[in-house]
Amino acid sequence: MAAVLAASVALSRVLGFLREAVLSRVLGAGAEVDAYRAAFMLPDLLNYFLAGGALSIAFIPFYTRLRDREGEEAADRFLAVVFGTTGALAAAATLVFWLGADQLVAFQFPRFSADQADLTARLTRILLPAQVFFIAGGVLRGALMARGHFVSQSLAPVFYNLAIIAGGVAFGARIGAEGFAWGALVGAVVGAFGTAWFEIRRIPDLRLSARIDVRDASLRRYLAAALPLVVGVTMVTVDEWYDKWFGALLTAGSVAALGYARQLMLLPVAMVGQAIATAALPTLARLAAENRERELDATLLVALRAGLSLACLGAAAAFVFAEPLVTLLYEGGRFTADDTRRVTELLRIFAWAVPAWVAQQIAVRGFYARGDTWRPMRLGTAVAAGAALLYFAMGRRYGAPGLATAGVIGMMLNAVATVVVLRRRYGGPPLGALAHTVARAGLIAAIAGVAAAVLPRLGSGAVGAVMHLALGGAVFAGVALAGIQLVGDASQRNAVRAIARRVLRRSA
Predict the structure, then answer these.
(1) What pLDDT digit, counting tens, does each position of 469-496 carry?
(2) Do residues 127 and 184 make contact, with C-beta atoms less than 8 angstroms apart?
(3) Same domain as 353, residue 267
(4) Would 17 be classed as within a structural domain?
């Protein structure tokens, strides 16, 4: 299942890069893209504080336990109440934010010009209704994943990105950023909600309905479990917020450049961390519900070791191939060579945070699977609050590179603290085994990165970038595979063998 999700994440990320490529060529990396990225802040905040991000994380363990202990009827009733009540709350909150968009944008981005602020507010009003569909679809996908159905989880981001690309291509040249915003709204309706609705209606033993009942006992217990995911934050959440808020205080184009670099950094994070964490949570939740603690810790250790090994390689590749990647994906149209240099510098800084991002996403599932949501959120909120001062100080002194560096430091602190507290509270995973894996993976990644970095650049522009990525990628992969066989630990060699077997089966 992790491989299927990884493949879907890879496809959605490829489409995400195509989306960013269209955005960069149509709009460039200036004030209009700053406004476009800033317009997602209010919708993102609405989604977060209505537990949109917590729906799958908190919902799956709760729904699984309810099905096991009280049966299908109780689970269906709970799903109906969560689906109807959160959908209604999302619609009401969307209306409030929509009416106050101008004032809220001015408060968040005081350095924006009048034209930038007007554009941001207009785009915000287009994007806000999408959150109703994201939140409602998130509830349905939570129930689907708890039952072992992952089609919607795989397809939702694909349709979302396709819709944004279509909006940008069809209307971007005429109406600018609004074309991309309308595409995002359509993508939320079709992808985030439509795919989940279609899949869940095809499950014969699941009776889907919608009820609004804020007094329902199961809903209240669920909200109590999800509350720390709403009132607390971690670096995974606030890193992008801080880049936008503090980046908007810098020169025009800073938010745009940080966003372009961040999207590239998130490729290995999504392919490794998100895929492994998403696939592991239902298994971890089941083991926790059955009180099989030793197996839970062993499963989590396997996931962390595999994730960190791949993350180190992904980080090295992002660092070494930053310039040809940015050139190939973004340069052209209104995106200039100067923009390429700015984004390349930021991507090389962001790359250092990839292992921490992956470790955080996987390790925190060890808490969530046990229904322990308060402890990681308290920890993450403390780190995120302290990091705000770091972002402000480093952004003010060093500009956008300072903000990127602050993000790396904050994410590393958050990940290390999460793993250490998990070990102290539940006895696993063993820190020595993780440190051993990271040390070997880091050494292998460094050697592979150096081998690829010494290669001369083969031409300029997009053609040169493709040639360099092809040759450098082959060298990097060959050295990495040899390094794993020579100095890698058993978990790394087993992961390579598993991937090879899977590839051979598909090609047979």
Answers:
(1) 999 999 999 999 999 988 888 777 877 7
(2) yes
(3) yes
(4) no
